[in-house]
Amino acid sequence: MKALVLSGGAGTRLRPITHTSAKQLVPVANKAVLFYGLESIAAAGITEVGMVVGDTAAEIEEAVGDGSRFGLRVTYLPQERPLGLAHAVLIARDFLGDDDFVMYLGDNFIVGGITGLVDEFRRNRPDAQILLTRVADPRSFGVAELDPSGRVIGLEEKPEHPKSDLALVGVYLFTPLVHEAVRAVKPSWRGELEITHALQHLIDIRADVRCTLVEGYWKDTGNVGDMLEVNRTVLESMERRIDGEVDDASETVGRVVVEAGARIANSRIVGPAVIGTGSVVRDSYVGPFTSVAENCRITDSELEFSIVLRDSSIRGVGRIESSLIGRHVEVTPATGVPSAHRLVLGDHSRVQIHS
Fold first, then answer.
1. What does the alpha-carbon distance between residue 141 and residue 138 come to, in Å, rounded to a whole number?
2. Which class is domain 2-222?
3. Which of 11, 92, 101, 242 sits at 20 to 30 Å (Cα–Cα) from 278?
4. DSSP labels, 106-140
């Protein structure tokens, strides 16, 4: 069995962060979202991975390499444009051959991994197996319709009037029969070859399409709110570890991780929180559900429920919360301009200011 991992896409909902970084490499708990998926694939006993990449191919390849650090062998599969999930299967045909495979969206996060799902698929070997979860607003997802016995009878992509609240999770398991289905579908109104249409084709030809309801935690980390929630979930499972330097004037409370080479001076860190290698927190408060990546500087500030990416500094700005701060960012107080805000914002930014 092989894996097909989708790591292309523009990440428009995470802009401006993704103007300069692949969305799959934005970290939660100081580890790229993509890496959690690769670790889950390896834990399920799969070693051959095809990685579909687009405009951010160089960055993905630099981060993942040949896959050996995860116990995998990775083959990179360039996709000229993100033309849909079914299109990704099309371009991976030679790599996949006649093997069964799991297709994993690289920006999805599933607590507990996929080992049980892969084992179930191997035992029963339906033509396709999809994962479903209940969501509050299904209009942003692929949506499944089930009959009273729980059998999948219909699938729609981002419907205006959903027939259920069951959304497709970004993990799919297929036998080679899916290759016939992806060749049969036509582009949708979005101009993409939809995997929901390919699955519907399998249903129409009476193939064995089964579903599993995901009861645990799943997130598509496509926006800032979801990133922060996944960060919260991962941090809650971490064990306390102090490998860096914490001076006598500082206090660490609860599940706090201070990586080797990090320094805490005259500060209070309340977990769950992680401070990355080479970072310095001085005269500050870092509160729960916060990840500070490597080589950051937090001085005379308060930070809570936030993600700070590497090589950034926050100095003298009071309290920051519910924020995603990119790489090489400087956050400082305005000077000489009373009651004013001075901003430099990227395209598609969203800012909330309390005046």
1. 5
2. alpha beta
3. 11
4. TTEEETT-SHHHHHHHHHH--SEEEEEEE-S-GGG
**Which residues, other chains included, contact 235 with Cβ-Cβ below 8 Å and sequence gap of 6+?**
29, 255, 271, 272, 273, 274, 288, 289, 290, 291
Spatial distance between the Cα atoms of 116 and 48, rounded to a whole number of angstroms:
18
Closest C-alpha among 162, 136, 132 to residue 150: 132
- What are all long-range contacts of 233-236, with beta carbons under 8 Å and residues at least 24 apart? 233/109, 233/111, 234/28, 234/29, 234/31, 235/29, 235/271, 235/272, 235/273, 235/274, 235/288, 235/289, 235/290, 235/291, 236/272
Cα–Cα distance between 23 and 11 in angstroms, integer?
5
pLDDT of residue 339: 60
Burial 196-221 (b: 16+ CB within 10 A, else e): bbbbbbbbeeebbbbbbebeeebbbb
Question: What are the φ/ψ torsions at residue 111 (nearest 5 degrees)?
Answer: -65, 130
Write down the pLDDT at residue 58: 92
For 64-97, the pLDDT digits (tens) are 999 999 999 999 999 988 889 999 999 999 999 9
> What sign results for the dihedral spanned by CA atoms 76, 97, 129, 72?
negative
Instruction: Work out the pLDDT band at 337, boundaries 50, 70, 90.
Output: low
Record the tokens describing residue 288, joined without a space.
């729960």
For residue 6, the tally of other CB atoms under 10 A from its CB is 26
Residue 132: closest CA among 89, 164, 175: 164
Per-residue model confidence (pLDDT) at position 147: 87
Query: Higher-confidence residue: 15 or 171?
Result: 171
Report the percentage of the chain scoring pLDDT > 70. 88
Residue intervals in the chain for CATH 2.160.10.10: 238-331
Range(s) within the chain of domains with CATH label 3.90.550.10: 2-222
Helix (H, G, I), strand (E, B) or coil at 43: helix
**DSSP assignment, residue 72?**
-
For the segment 12-49, what is each residue's pLDDT rounded down to a tens digit? 444 444 445 577 888 889 999 899 999 999 999 999 99
Task: Let me know if domain 238-331 sits in CATH 2.40.50.840.
Answer: no
Maximum CA pair distance of the chain? 71
Contact 331, 347 (CB under 8 A): no
